[in-house]
Amino acid sequence: MIYSVLIVSLTFIVMEFVAFALHKYVMHGFLWSWHKDHHQPKDEKLEKNDRFFLVFAIPSWLGIMFGLIYDINWFFSIGLGIALYGICYVIVHEIIIHQRLPFFKRLNFKYIKGIRFAHKIHHKNQGKFHGVCFGMLIVPLKYFK
Ligand SMILES: [Zn+2]
Ligand SMILES: [Zn+2]
Questions:
Q1: CB distance 135 to 16 below 8 Å
Q2: What pLDDT does 45 receive?
Q3: Which of 4, 27, 55, 137 has a CA-to-CA distance to 48 between 20 and 30 Å?
């Protein structure tokens, strides 16, 4: 049990770095065509960028499914860790930062303000290149001041 909790937590932390790298090198790289509408004004409620959420859901689903079918604990734990990061991503990025749903509009914790500000700076640049601040939960300390 303790190992499962450890693997779930570790996976969650690793996911922040995976997400950082994918955002920086893939989304602002060869899959910019999917990410572009997240950086530029649009009318539709759904973004092409939302496809990434589905892509991230695949390893999570496979991990949970095969973990359960073959009774492989660490497989299941990794799948669960990715799923938890996905839920956190929706709450932090889609709801708290971009306010796509009407919840948590007035959160004023120092940490929340910091990551919101850092993401705002990321969005200031509407283009593919010269981006800054690709992380979601871990951002440079200067944004908390
Ligand atoms: Zn971006
Ligand atoms: Zn964003």
A1: yes
A2: 87
A3: 137
